[in-house]
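User: I'm designing a mutation panel for cyclic-guanylate-specific phosphodiesterase and want to avoid disrupting the core. Could you give me a predicted structure to guide residue selection? Please restate the sequence first so the numbering is unambiguous.

Assistant: Good idea. Sequence first, for numbering, then the predicted C-alpha coordinates:
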Amino acid sequence: MCLVAGRATAAFESAAGAGRGIAGPGYQRHALHRHGGHAHAARHRVHALPVRAVPADCHCRIGGGVVDRVPPAPSPASCVPGSRGCLGAGGHGSGRHALHNFAEGSFCGALINGLSSNGLDRVVLVASLTVLSLTLFACILDAHLEARTAVLVTSLSQANQELTHLAMHDNLTGLPNRVLLTERIEQAMARADETGGCFALMFMDLDGFKPVNDAFGHHTGDLLLRQVALRLRQNVNRHDTLARVGGDEFVLLIELDDQQDALTVATRQVSEISNPFLIGEHQLQISLSIGICIYPGHGATQHELLVNADAAMYHTKAAGKNGHSFFDVSMNCNARNQLQLSQDLRTALRHKHFCLYYQPKFDALSGLPIGAEALLRWNHPERGVLGPDLFIAMAEKTGLIIQIGEWVLDEACRQMREWYTEGYSHWRISVNLSALQFRHSGLVATVADTLARHQLPANCLTLEITETTAMDDADASLGVLNRLSEMGMDLSIDDFGTGYSSLMYLKRLPANEIKIDRGFVRDLEHDTDDAAIVSAIVAVGQALNLRIVAEGVETTLQQRFLTHLGCDSLQGFLLGHPMPAEQFLEDIRAAESRIAFDVQESEAKASAF
Protein backbone atom coordinates (compact mmCIF):
# COMPACT_ATOMS: atom_id res chain seq x y z
CA MET A 1 0.00 0.00 0.00
CA CYS A 2 1.16 3.49 -0.77
CA LEU A 3 0.75 7.01 0.63
CA VAL A 4 0.85 10.00 -1.73
CA ALA A 5 0.74 13.58 -0.23
CA GLY A 6 -1.75 12.55 2.40
CA ARG A 7 -4.48 12.29 -0.31
CA ALA A 8 -3.86 8.72 -1.48
CA THR A 9 -6.55 6.62 -2.99
CA ALA A 10 -5.68 2.95 -2.64
CA ALA A 11 -7.37 0.45 -4.84
CA PHE A 12 -6.87 -3.21 -4.49
CA GLU A 13 -7.94 -5.44 -7.29
CA SER A 14 -7.93 -9.17 -7.26
CA ALA A 15 -6.42 -10.92 -10.26
CA ALA A 16 -9.52 -13.12 -10.18
CA GLY A 17 -11.85 -10.13 -9.94
CA ALA A 18 -13.19 -10.94 -6.44
CA GLY A 19 -13.32 -8.66 -3.42
CA ARG A 20 -12.61 -4.93 -3.42
CA GLY A 21 -11.60 -2.64 -0.60
CA ILE A 22 -11.70 1.11 -1.00
CA ALA A 23 -10.37 3.73 1.37
CA GLY A 24 -10.21 7.44 0.83
CA PRO A 25 -12.23 10.60 0.49
CA GLY A 26 -14.47 9.18 -2.21
CA TYR A 27 -15.48 6.31 0.00
CA GLN A 28 -16.16 8.66 2.91
CA ARG A 29 -18.48 10.76 0.77
CA HIS A 30 -20.32 7.64 -0.30
CA ALA A 31 -20.65 6.47 3.27
CA LEU A 32 -22.05 9.79 4.45
CA HIS A 33 -24.61 9.71 1.72
CA ARG A 34 -25.72 6.18 2.46
CA HIS A 35 -26.03 6.52 6.23
CA GLY A 36 -27.68 9.88 6.32
CA GLY A 37 -24.89 11.88 7.88
CA HIS A 38 -23.50 9.28 10.26
CA ALA A 39 -20.01 10.37 9.39
CA HIS A 40 -18.41 9.28 12.57
CA ALA A 41 -19.62 5.72 12.24
CA ALA A 42 -18.49 5.56 8.61
CA ARG A 43 -15.03 6.81 9.42
CA HIS A 44 -14.74 4.30 12.20
CA ARG A 45 -15.62 1.47 9.86
CA VAL A 46 -13.09 2.62 7.29
CA HIS A 47 -10.31 2.96 9.80
CA ALA A 48 -11.18 -0.38 11.30
CA LEU A 49 -11.08 -2.17 7.91
CA PRO A 50 -8.80 -5.18 8.44
CA VAL A 51 -5.96 -5.95 6.16
CA ARG A 52 -7.24 -9.44 5.71
CA ALA A 53 -10.04 -7.98 3.57
CA VAL A 54 -7.43 -7.48 0.84
CA PRO A 55 -7.00 -10.50 -1.43
CA ALA A 56 -3.66 -12.21 -1.41
CA ASP A 57 -2.75 -11.32 -4.98
CA CYS A 58 -3.71 -7.63 -4.93
CA HIS A 59 -1.35 -4.92 -6.18
CA CYS A 60 -0.88 -1.35 -5.04
CA ARG A 61 -1.49 1.42 -7.60
CA ILE A 62 -0.36 5.04 -7.49
CA GLY A 63 -2.17 7.13 -10.05
CA GLY A 64 -3.12 3.99 -11.96
CA GLY A 65 0.29 2.26 -12.17
CA VAL A 66 1.14 -0.97 -10.32
CA VAL A 67 4.14 -0.29 -8.11
CA ASP A 68 4.52 -3.33 -5.89
CA ARG A 69 2.84 -6.52 -4.96
CA VAL A 70 1.11 -6.54 -1.59
CA PRO A 71 1.96 -9.64 0.44
CA PRO A 72 -0.78 -11.94 1.73
CA ALA A 73 -2.99 -10.67 4.56
CA PRO A 74 -1.50 -11.29 7.97
CA SER A 75 -3.26 -12.62 11.00
CA PRO A 76 -5.22 -10.17 13.21
CA ALA A 77 -2.51 -10.27 15.75
CA SER A 78 -0.06 -8.95 13.26
CA CYS A 79 -2.07 -5.78 12.55
CA VAL A 80 -0.15 -3.75 15.02
CA PRO A 81 2.24 -0.86 14.60
CA GLY A 82 5.26 -1.98 12.66
CA SER A 83 3.40 -4.72 10.80
CA ARG A 84 2.50 -4.71 7.12
CA GLY A 85 -1.00 -3.35 6.78
CA CYS A 86 -3.34 -0.99 5.04
CA LEU A 87 -3.49 2.74 5.72
CA GLY A 88 -6.48 4.83 4.74
CA ALA A 89 -6.90 8.53 4.47
CA GLY A 90 -6.75 8.95 8.19
CA GLY A 91 -3.03 8.17 8.30
CA HIS A 92 -3.03 5.83 11.42
CA GLY A 93 0.24 4.56 12.84
CA SER A 94 -0.04 1.08 11.35
CA GLY A 95 0.13 2.57 7.76
CA ARG A 96 3.15 4.76 8.46
CA HIS A 97 5.16 1.87 9.78
CA ALA A 98 4.11 -0.20 6.77
CA LEU A 99 5.95 2.21 4.46
CA HIS A 100 9.21 0.81 5.75
CA ASN A 101 8.33 -2.72 4.87
CA PHE A 102 8.31 -2.66 1.00
CA ALA A 103 10.41 -5.32 -0.69
CA GLU A 104 14.12 -4.58 -0.79
CA GLY A 105 15.21 -3.50 -4.25
CA SER A 106 11.69 -2.41 -5.23
CA PHE A 107 11.01 1.10 -6.50
CA CYS A 108 8.98 2.12 -3.46
CA GLY A 109 11.50 0.54 -1.16
CA ALA A 110 14.30 2.47 -2.81
CA LEU A 111 12.40 5.72 -2.37
CA ILE A 112 11.98 5.08 1.37
CA ASN A 113 15.03 3.13 2.44
CA GLY A 114 17.61 4.08 -0.28
CA LEU A 115 19.69 1.68 -2.38
CA SER A 116 21.19 -1.42 -0.92
CA SER A 117 24.92 -2.00 -1.09
CA ASN A 118 24.44 -4.38 -4.02
CA GLY A 119 22.46 -1.78 -5.98
CA LEU A 120 25.01 0.90 -5.28
CA ASP A 121 27.79 -1.35 -6.59
CA ARG A 122 25.93 -1.81 -9.83
CA VAL A 123 25.42 1.93 -10.27
CA VAL A 124 29.06 2.67 -9.55
CA LEU A 125 30.14 -0.07 -11.95
CA VAL A 126 27.93 1.23 -14.75
CA ALA A 127 29.08 4.81 -14.18
CA SER A 128 32.73 3.75 -14.11
CA LEU A 129 32.38 1.75 -17.31
CA THR A 130 30.67 4.69 -18.96
CA VAL A 131 33.44 7.09 -17.96
CA LEU A 132 36.12 4.64 -19.07
CA SER A 133 34.36 4.07 -22.41
CA LEU A 134 34.09 7.78 -23.05
CA THR A 135 37.75 8.26 -22.10
CA LEU A 136 38.84 5.44 -24.39
CA PHE A 137 36.74 6.82 -27.24
CA ALA A 138 38.23 10.29 -26.71
CA CYS A 139 41.76 8.84 -26.78
CA ILE A 140 41.08 6.91 -29.96
CA LEU A 141 39.46 9.94 -31.57
CA ASP A 142 42.35 12.16 -30.48
CA ALA A 143 44.92 9.73 -31.93
CA HIS A 144 42.96 9.52 -35.18
CA LEU A 145 42.70 13.29 -35.43
CA GLU A 146 46.39 13.64 -34.65
CA ALA A 147 47.25 11.17 -37.43
CA ARG A 148 44.94 12.91 -39.87
CA THR A 149 46.44 16.26 -38.92
CA ALA A 150 49.93 14.94 -39.58
CA VAL A 151 48.85 13.62 -42.99
CA LEU A 152 47.20 16.95 -43.79
CA VAL A 153 50.31 18.90 -42.79
CA THR A 154 52.46 16.62 -44.96
CA SER A 155 50.07 16.98 -47.90
CA LEU A 156 50.03 20.76 -47.58
CA SER A 157 53.82 20.83 -47.41
CA GLN A 158 54.09 18.69 -50.55
CA ALA A 159 51.50 20.83 -52.33
CA ASN A 160 53.43 23.98 -51.47
CA GLN A 161 56.63 22.42 -52.78
CA GLU A 162 54.91 21.42 -56.02
CA LEU A 163 53.41 24.88 -56.46
CA THR A 164 56.80 26.47 -55.86
CA HIS A 165 58.38 24.15 -58.41
CA LEU A 166 55.67 24.89 -60.98
CA ALA A 167 56.06 28.62 -60.42
CA MET A 168 59.78 28.45 -61.17
CA HIS A 169 60.03 25.79 -63.89
CA ASP A 170 58.87 25.39 -67.46
CA ASN A 171 55.94 23.02 -67.70
CA LEU A 172 56.97 21.54 -71.07
CA THR A 173 60.69 20.87 -70.62
CA GLY A 174 61.06 20.90 -66.83
CA LEU A 175 63.81 23.51 -67.12
CA PRO A 176 63.96 26.61 -64.91
CA ASN A 177 61.83 29.46 -66.25
CA ARG A 178 62.54 33.18 -66.41
CA VAL A 179 61.63 33.72 -62.73
CA LEU A 180 64.16 31.21 -61.44
CA LEU A 181 66.73 32.31 -64.04
CA THR A 182 66.50 35.88 -62.76
CA GLU A 183 67.23 34.71 -59.22
CA ARG A 184 70.17 32.60 -60.40
CA ILE A 185 71.66 35.53 -62.36
CA GLU A 186 71.44 37.81 -59.33
CA GLN A 187 73.05 35.14 -57.15
CA ALA A 188 75.83 34.66 -59.71
CA MET A 189 76.43 38.41 -59.84
CA ALA A 190 76.71 38.54 -56.04
CA ARG A 191 79.22 35.67 -56.02
CA ALA A 192 81.25 37.24 -58.82
CA ASP A 193 81.37 40.57 -56.98
CA GLU A 194 82.45 38.83 -53.79
CA THR A 195 85.05 36.46 -55.24
CA GLY A 196 86.19 38.39 -58.29
CA GLY A 197 84.97 35.63 -60.62
CA CYS A 198 82.97 35.88 -63.84
CA PHE A 199 80.19 34.09 -65.69
CA ALA A 200 78.71 33.97 -69.18
CA LEU A 201 75.08 34.41 -70.17
CA MET A 202 74.13 32.80 -73.49
CA PHE A 203 70.86 33.67 -75.21
CA MET A 204 69.97 30.82 -77.62
CA ASP A 205 67.29 30.81 -80.31
CA LEU A 206 66.36 27.94 -82.64
CA ASP A 207 66.65 28.60 -86.39
CA GLY A 208 63.84 27.03 -88.41
CA PHE A 209 61.59 26.06 -85.52
CA LYS A 210 58.55 28.07 -86.60
CA PRO A 211 58.27 26.38 -90.01
CA VAL A 212 58.29 23.01 -88.24
CA ASN A 213 55.61 24.17 -85.82
CA ASP A 214 53.44 25.54 -88.62
CA ALA A 215 53.90 22.54 -90.91
CA PHE A 216 53.45 19.68 -88.44
CA GLY A 217 51.49 21.27 -85.60
CA HIS A 218 52.20 22.23 -82.01
CA HIS A 219 52.42 18.64 -80.78
CA THR A 220 55.41 17.94 -83.01
CA GLY A 221 56.88 21.30 -82.06
CA ASP A 222 56.57 20.46 -78.35
CA LEU A 223 58.29 17.10 -78.85
CA LEU A 224 61.09 18.85 -80.71
CA LEU A 225 61.52 21.38 -77.90
CA ARG A 226 61.81 18.57 -75.35
CA GLN A 227 64.55 16.89 -77.36
CA VAL A 228 66.36 20.21 -77.81
CA ALA A 229 66.26 20.75 -74.04
CA LEU A 230 67.72 17.28 -73.43
CA ARG A 231 70.59 17.90 -75.84
CA LEU A 232 71.41 21.31 -74.43
CA ARG A 233 71.34 19.94 -70.88
CA GLN A 234 73.88 17.23 -71.75
CA ASN A 235 76.57 19.89 -72.14
CA VAL A 236 75.77 21.73 -68.90
CA ASN A 237 77.42 21.18 -65.52
CA ARG A 238 75.28 20.48 -62.49
CA HIS A 239 75.90 23.90 -60.92
CA ASP A 240 75.10 25.80 -64.15
CA THR A 241 71.58 26.88 -65.15
CA LEU A 242 69.79 26.13 -68.42
CA ALA A 243 66.41 27.86 -68.66
CA ARG A 244 63.63 28.11 -71.22
CA VAL A 245 62.43 31.71 -71.43
CA GLY A 246 60.19 31.67 -74.51
CA GLY A 247 58.74 29.56 -77.30
CA ASP A 248 62.04 28.46 -78.87
CA GLU A 249 64.37 30.55 -76.72
CA PHE A 250 66.76 29.21 -74.09
CA VAL A 251 69.27 30.90 -71.80
CA LEU A 252 72.39 29.26 -70.38
CA LEU A 253 74.18 30.64 -67.32
CA ILE A 254 77.67 29.20 -66.79
CA GLU A 255 80.29 30.26 -64.28
CA LEU A 256 83.74 30.54 -65.89
CA ASP A 257 87.30 29.92 -64.88
CA ASP A 258 88.38 31.41 -68.20
CA GLN A 259 86.32 33.51 -70.62
CA GLN A 260 87.52 31.26 -73.44
CA ASP A 261 85.40 28.49 -71.89
CA ALA A 262 82.27 30.33 -73.03
CA LEU A 263 83.36 30.01 -76.66
CA THR A 264 83.99 26.28 -76.20
CA VAL A 265 80.56 25.67 -74.68
CA ALA A 266 78.76 27.74 -77.35
CA THR A 267 80.51 25.90 -80.18
CA ARG A 268 79.57 22.56 -78.65
CA GLN A 269 75.91 23.55 -78.27
CA VAL A 270 75.66 24.77 -81.88
CA SER A 271 77.18 21.51 -83.11
CA GLU A 272 74.84 19.41 -80.96
CA ILE A 273 71.66 21.06 -82.25
CA SER A 274 72.78 20.86 -85.90
CA ASN A 275 72.37 17.07 -85.83
CA PRO A 276 68.99 15.86 -87.17
CA PHE A 277 66.08 15.21 -84.80
CA LEU A 278 63.78 12.23 -85.29
CA ILE A 279 60.25 13.20 -84.25
CA GLY A 280 57.81 10.41 -85.02
CA GLU A 281 58.22 9.67 -88.71
CA HIS A 282 59.84 13.01 -89.47
CA GLN A 283 63.55 13.74 -89.53
CA LEU A 284 63.85 17.42 -88.76
CA GLN A 285 66.86 19.69 -89.23
CA ILE A 286 67.21 22.94 -87.31
CA SER A 287 70.09 25.07 -86.09
CA LEU A 288 71.00 27.29 -83.16
CA SER A 289 71.97 30.97 -82.94
CA ILE A 290 73.68 32.13 -79.73
CA GLY A 291 74.45 35.55 -78.29
CA ILE A 292 77.00 35.72 -75.46
CA CYS A 293 77.66 38.38 -72.85
CA ILE A 294 80.13 38.27 -69.95
CA TYR A 295 79.76 39.57 -66.39
CA PRO A 296 81.37 41.79 -65.35
CA GLY A 297 81.71 43.95 -68.43
CA HIS A 298 78.56 43.58 -70.53
CA GLY A 299 75.93 44.81 -68.08
CA ALA A 300 75.38 45.95 -64.52
CA THR A 301 71.99 44.28 -63.89
CA GLN A 302 70.41 40.99 -64.80
CA HIS A 303 68.04 42.84 -67.14
CA GLU A 304 70.91 44.49 -69.03
CA LEU A 305 72.71 41.17 -69.34
CA LEU A 306 69.65 39.48 -70.86
CA VAL A 307 69.02 42.36 -73.26
CA ASN A 308 72.63 42.44 -74.41
CA ALA A 309 72.81 38.68 -74.86
CA ASP A 310 69.61 38.88 -76.90
CA ALA A 311 71.13 41.61 -79.08
CA ALA A 312 74.19 39.45 -79.70
CA MET A 313 71.92 36.57 -80.68
CA TYR A 314 70.15 38.74 -83.28
CA HIS A 315 73.55 39.70 -84.64
CA THR A 316 74.28 35.99 -85.11
CA LYS A 317 71.04 35.52 -87.03
CA ALA A 318 71.77 38.51 -89.25
CA ALA A 319 75.19 37.07 -90.00
CA GLY A 320 73.75 33.81 -91.31
CA LYS A 321 72.49 31.95 -88.21
CA ASN A 322 73.84 28.62 -86.92
CA GLY A 323 76.62 30.20 -84.86
CA HIS A 324 77.46 32.50 -81.97
CA SER A 325 78.49 36.12 -81.35
CA PHE A 326 79.89 37.98 -78.35
CA PHE A 327 78.10 41.16 -77.38
CA ASP A 328 79.40 44.49 -78.63
CA VAL A 329 78.06 47.93 -77.71
CA SER A 330 77.16 48.66 -81.35
CA MET A 331 74.68 45.78 -81.29
CA ASN A 332 72.34 47.65 -78.98
CA CYS A 333 71.40 50.12 -81.71
CA ASN A 334 70.50 47.33 -84.12
CA ALA A 335 68.55 45.50 -81.43
CA ARG A 336 66.50 48.60 -80.70
CA ASN A 337 65.81 49.06 -84.40
CA GLN A 338 64.66 45.47 -84.70
CA LEU A 339 62.39 45.86 -81.71
CA GLN A 340 60.91 49.05 -83.12
CA LEU A 341 60.35 47.38 -86.48
CA SER A 342 58.48 44.48 -84.92
CA GLN A 343 56.27 46.88 -82.96
CA ASP A 344 55.59 48.96 -86.07
CA LEU A 345 54.63 45.83 -87.99
CA ARG A 346 52.02 44.91 -85.41
CA THR A 347 50.65 48.44 -85.53
CA ALA A 348 50.53 48.36 -89.34
CA LEU A 349 48.61 45.10 -89.31
CA ARG A 350 46.17 46.40 -86.72
CA HIS A 351 45.55 49.73 -88.49
CA LYS A 352 45.72 48.37 -92.06
CA HIS A 353 48.77 50.33 -93.18
CA PHE A 354 49.57 47.74 -95.86
CA CYS A 355 48.56 48.05 -99.49
CA LEU A 356 49.06 46.16 -102.75
CA TYR A 357 50.80 47.31 -105.88
CA TYR A 358 50.23 45.43 -109.13
CA GLN A 359 52.82 44.72 -111.81
CA PRO A 360 51.37 43.70 -115.18
CA LYS A 361 52.20 40.53 -117.09
CA PHE A 362 52.14 40.58 -120.89
CA ASP A 363 51.83 37.94 -123.52
CA ALA A 364 55.27 37.65 -125.15
CA LEU A 365 53.97 37.46 -128.74
CA SER A 366 50.95 39.77 -128.77
CA GLY A 367 52.07 42.19 -126.09
CA LEU A 368 48.58 42.16 -124.55
CA PRO A 369 48.17 42.21 -120.75
CA ILE A 370 47.15 38.82 -119.35
CA GLY A 371 47.15 39.54 -115.62
CA ALA A 372 49.16 40.99 -112.77
CA GLU A 373 51.29 40.05 -109.79
CA ALA A 374 50.23 41.44 -106.41
CA LEU A 375 53.19 42.98 -104.56
CA LEU A 376 53.06 44.03 -100.90
CA ARG A 377 53.89 47.57 -99.79
CA TRP A 378 53.86 49.22 -96.36
CA ASN A 379 52.59 52.78 -96.00
CA HIS A 380 54.74 53.64 -93.00
CA PRO A 381 53.47 56.83 -91.31
CA GLU A 382 57.03 58.16 -90.83
CA ARG A 383 59.20 56.42 -93.42
CA GLY A 384 56.81 56.45 -96.38
CA VAL A 385 56.16 53.51 -98.72
CA LEU A 386 58.43 50.57 -97.87
CA GLY A 387 59.18 47.58 -100.07
CA PRO A 388 58.97 44.01 -98.73
CA ASP A 389 62.75 43.59 -98.56
CA LEU A 390 62.76 45.97 -95.56
CA PHE A 391 60.26 44.11 -93.38
CA ILE A 392 59.45 40.61 -94.66
CA ALA A 393 62.32 39.02 -92.72
CA MET A 394 61.02 40.52 -89.48
CA ALA A 395 57.48 39.48 -90.35
CA GLU A 396 58.68 35.90 -90.78
CA LYS A 397 60.64 35.99 -87.53
CA THR A 398 57.70 37.25 -85.51
CA GLY A 399 55.20 34.97 -87.26
CA LEU A 400 53.18 37.97 -88.46
CA ILE A 401 53.78 36.82 -92.03
CA ILE A 402 50.84 34.41 -91.68
CA GLN A 403 48.35 37.19 -90.95
CA ILE A 404 49.96 39.52 -93.48
CA GLY A 405 49.88 36.80 -96.14
CA GLU A 406 46.20 36.12 -95.49
CA TRP A 407 45.45 39.82 -95.89
CA VAL A 408 47.39 39.93 -99.19
CA LEU A 409 45.44 36.96 -100.54
CA ASP A 410 42.11 38.45 -99.53
CA GLU A 411 42.85 41.90 -100.97
CA ALA A 412 44.20 40.49 -104.25
CA CYS A 413 41.12 38.33 -104.75
CA ARG A 414 38.84 41.25 -103.94
CA GLN A 415 40.58 43.41 -106.54
CA MET A 416 40.58 40.64 -109.13
CA ARG A 417 36.84 40.25 -108.64
CA GLU A 418 36.39 43.93 -109.54
CA TRP A 419 38.44 43.51 -112.70
CA TYR A 420 36.57 40.31 -113.49
CA THR A 421 33.23 42.13 -113.45
CA GLU A 422 34.71 44.92 -115.62
CA GLY A 423 35.44 42.47 -118.43
CA TYR A 424 38.89 41.08 -117.58
CA SER A 425 37.72 37.56 -116.81
CA HIS A 426 40.66 36.11 -118.80
CA TRP A 427 43.21 37.63 -116.41
CA ARG A 428 44.99 35.81 -113.62
CA ILE A 429 46.13 37.46 -110.40
CA SER A 430 49.38 36.06 -108.96
CA VAL A 431 49.98 35.96 -105.19
CA ASN A 432 53.27 34.97 -103.54
CA LEU A 433 53.21 32.53 -100.63
CA SER A 434 55.97 32.68 -98.03
CA ALA A 435 57.52 29.47 -96.75
CA LEU A 436 55.73 29.85 -93.42
CA GLN A 437 52.40 30.47 -95.08
CA PHE A 438 52.85 27.50 -97.41
CA ARG A 439 53.60 25.22 -94.43
CA HIS A 440 50.67 26.50 -92.41
CA SER A 441 48.10 23.79 -91.79
CA GLY A 442 45.18 26.09 -92.63
CA LEU A 443 46.44 27.27 -96.03
CA VAL A 444 44.11 25.21 -98.24
CA ALA A 445 41.03 26.13 -96.21
CA THR A 446 42.04 29.80 -96.21
CA VAL A 447 42.38 29.86 -100.00
CA ALA A 448 39.04 28.11 -100.49
CA ASP A 449 37.25 30.48 -98.10
CA THR A 450 38.78 33.54 -99.77
CA LEU A 451 37.69 32.47 -103.26
CA ALA A 452 34.19 31.72 -102.01
CA ARG A 453 33.92 35.01 -100.12
CA HIS A 454 34.70 37.04 -103.24
CA GLN A 455 32.92 34.67 -105.65
CA LEU A 456 36.08 34.43 -107.74
CA PRO A 457 36.67 31.44 -110.03
CA ALA A 458 39.73 29.45 -108.99
CA ASN A 459 41.26 29.68 -112.48
CA CYS A 460 41.64 33.45 -111.95
CA LEU A 461 44.19 32.86 -109.16
CA THR A 462 47.84 31.81 -109.45
CA LEU A 463 49.80 30.96 -106.31
CA GLU A 464 53.56 31.39 -106.50
CA ILE A 465 56.03 29.51 -104.29
CA THR A 466 59.79 29.49 -104.58
CA GLU A 467 61.67 26.47 -105.81
CA THR A 468 63.38 26.14 -102.41
CA THR A 469 60.04 26.12 -100.58
CA ALA A 470 58.65 23.48 -102.90
CA MET A 471 61.70 21.26 -102.37
CA ASP A 472 61.76 21.59 -98.58
CA ASP A 473 60.11 18.37 -97.36
CA ALA A 474 59.15 17.36 -100.87
CA ASP A 475 56.45 14.86 -99.92
CA ALA A 476 54.59 17.31 -97.68
CA SER A 477 54.87 20.02 -100.34
CA LEU A 478 53.51 17.67 -102.97
CA GLY A 479 50.46 16.93 -100.83
CA VAL A 480 49.64 20.62 -100.36
CA LEU A 481 50.22 21.45 -104.03
CA ASN A 482 47.96 18.60 -105.15
CA ARG A 483 45.14 19.81 -102.93
CA LEU A 484 45.47 23.36 -104.27
CA SER A 485 45.65 22.15 -107.85
CA GLU A 486 42.49 20.09 -107.41
CA MET A 487 40.64 23.30 -106.56
CA GLY A 488 41.36 24.57 -110.09
CA MET A 489 43.95 27.30 -109.51
CA ASP A 490 47.34 27.62 -111.19
CA LEU A 491 50.61 26.95 -109.38
CA SER A 492 53.83 28.70 -110.33
CA ILE A 493 57.41 27.81 -109.29
CA ASP A 494 59.09 31.17 -108.63
CA ASP A 495 62.83 31.92 -108.94
CA PHE A 496 63.31 28.75 -110.94
CA GLY A 497 66.95 27.83 -111.45
CA THR A 498 68.18 29.16 -108.10
CA GLY A 499 67.28 26.06 -106.08
CA TYR A 500 68.23 22.44 -106.28
CA SER A 501 65.16 20.71 -107.68
CA SER A 502 65.68 17.67 -109.80
CA LEU A 503 63.88 17.16 -113.07
CA MET A 504 62.34 13.98 -111.69
CA TYR A 505 60.79 15.90 -108.79
CA LEU A 506 59.75 18.80 -111.02
CA LYS A 507 57.94 16.28 -113.17
CA ARG A 508 55.86 15.17 -110.18
CA LEU A 509 54.80 18.66 -109.18
CA PRO A 510 51.29 19.74 -110.25
CA ALA A 511 52.71 23.10 -111.40
CA ASN A 512 51.37 25.04 -114.39
CA GLU A 513 54.23 27.47 -114.94
CA ILE A 514 57.81 28.29 -114.01
CA LYS A 515 59.30 31.77 -113.58
CA ILE A 516 62.88 32.41 -114.66
CA ASP A 517 64.74 34.27 -111.92
CA ARG A 518 65.55 37.89 -112.73
CA GLY A 519 69.20 37.25 -111.91
CA PHE A 520 69.59 35.18 -115.09
CA VAL A 521 67.62 37.66 -117.21
CA ARG A 522 69.57 40.71 -116.05
CA ASP A 523 72.95 39.63 -117.51
CA LEU A 524 71.95 37.40 -120.40
CA GLU A 525 72.95 40.09 -122.90
CA HIS A 526 76.55 40.06 -121.67
CA ASP A 527 76.96 36.67 -120.02
CA THR A 528 76.84 33.65 -122.29
CA ASP A 529 76.45 31.35 -119.29
CA ASP A 530 73.27 33.13 -118.20
CA ALA A 531 71.96 32.99 -121.76
CA ALA A 532 72.66 29.25 -121.86
CA ILE A 533 70.92 28.71 -118.51
CA VAL A 534 67.86 30.64 -119.65
CA SER A 535 67.74 28.63 -122.86
CA ALA A 536 67.94 25.39 -120.84
CA ILE A 537 65.16 26.46 -118.48
CA VAL A 538 62.89 27.32 -121.40
CA ALA A 539 63.61 23.94 -122.98
CA VAL A 540 62.82 22.10 -119.72
CA GLY A 541 59.56 24.00 -119.30
CA GLN A 542 58.47 23.25 -122.82
CA ALA A 543 59.38 19.58 -122.42
CA LEU A 544 57.19 19.39 -119.29
CA ASN A 545 54.40 21.36 -120.98
CA LEU A 546 54.71 24.26 -118.53
CA ARG A 547 54.15 27.94 -119.22
CA ILE A 548 57.38 29.96 -118.98
CA VAL A 549 57.40 33.45 -117.46
CA ALA A 550 60.51 35.66 -117.58
CA GLU A 551 60.66 38.38 -114.92
CA GLY A 552 63.02 41.32 -114.67
CA VAL A 553 62.79 42.33 -118.34
CA GLU A 554 64.28 45.83 -118.56
CA THR A 555 65.60 46.18 -122.13
CA THR A 556 64.24 45.65 -125.60
CA LEU A 557 67.07 43.22 -126.37
CA GLN A 558 66.08 41.07 -123.41
CA GLN A 559 62.46 41.13 -124.54
CA ARG A 560 63.34 40.01 -128.06
CA PHE A 561 65.74 37.30 -126.89
CA LEU A 562 63.24 35.80 -124.45
CA THR A 563 60.41 35.96 -126.95
CA HIS A 564 62.60 34.26 -129.52
CA LEU A 565 63.48 31.47 -127.05
CA GLY A 566 59.80 30.72 -126.58
CA CYS A 567 58.81 32.38 -123.29
CA ASP A 568 55.03 32.63 -122.96
CA SER A 569 54.83 35.84 -120.92
CA LEU A 570 57.08 38.66 -119.80
CA GLN A 571 57.23 40.92 -116.76
CA GLY A 572 59.56 43.80 -115.89
CA PHE A 573 60.13 47.53 -115.69
CA LEU A 574 60.37 47.77 -119.49
CA LEU A 575 56.75 46.74 -119.75
CA GLY A 576 55.24 48.11 -116.56
CA HIS A 577 56.15 49.17 -113.03
CA PRO A 578 54.27 48.07 -109.92
CA MET A 579 51.52 50.59 -109.15
CA PRO A 580 48.29 50.97 -107.16
CA ALA A 581 45.15 49.38 -108.58
CA GLU A 582 43.61 52.61 -109.94
CA GLN A 583 46.71 53.66 -111.83
CA PHE A 584 47.33 50.09 -112.95
CA LEU A 585 44.00 49.87 -114.75
CA GLU A 586 44.52 53.26 -116.41
CA ASP A 587 47.92 52.18 -117.75
CA ILE A 588 46.54 48.85 -118.94
CA ARG A 589 43.77 50.55 -120.87
CA ALA A 590 46.27 52.97 -122.37
CA ALA A 591 48.50 50.05 -123.37
CA GLU A 592 45.55 48.24 -124.92
CA SER A 593 44.68 51.35 -126.90
CA ARG A 594 48.25 51.67 -128.18
CA ILE A 595 48.35 48.02 -129.16
CA ALA A 596 45.00 48.28 -130.89
CA PHE A 597 46.18 51.36 -132.77
CA ASP A 598 49.42 49.61 -133.78
CA VAL A 599 47.45 46.62 -135.02
CA GLN A 600 45.13 48.81 -137.04
CA GLU A 601 48.08 50.68 -138.50
CA SER A 602 49.83 47.43 -139.38
CA GLU A 603 46.69 46.08 -141.02
CA ALA A 604 46.29 49.32 -142.94
CA LYS A 605 49.84 49.12 -144.23
CA ALA A 606 49.37 45.50 -145.15
CA SER A 607 46.18 46.26 -147.07
CA ALA A 608 47.95 49.09 -148.89
CA PHE A 609 50.30 46.56 -150.44
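For picking mutation sites, this is relevant: The longest strand covers residues 369-380. The chain has 22 helices and 20 strands.
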